[in-house]
Amino acid sequence: VAIARALAVEPEILLMDEPFAALDAQLRTILQDELLALTQTTRTTTLFITHSLEEAIVLGDRVLVMSARPGRIIAERRPPFPRPRTGDIRTTAEFTALKSELWDLLRSEVRTEAVPA
Question: Per UniProt, which keywords does this protein have (predicted)?
Answer without folding.
Answer: ATP-binding, Nucleotide-binding, Transport
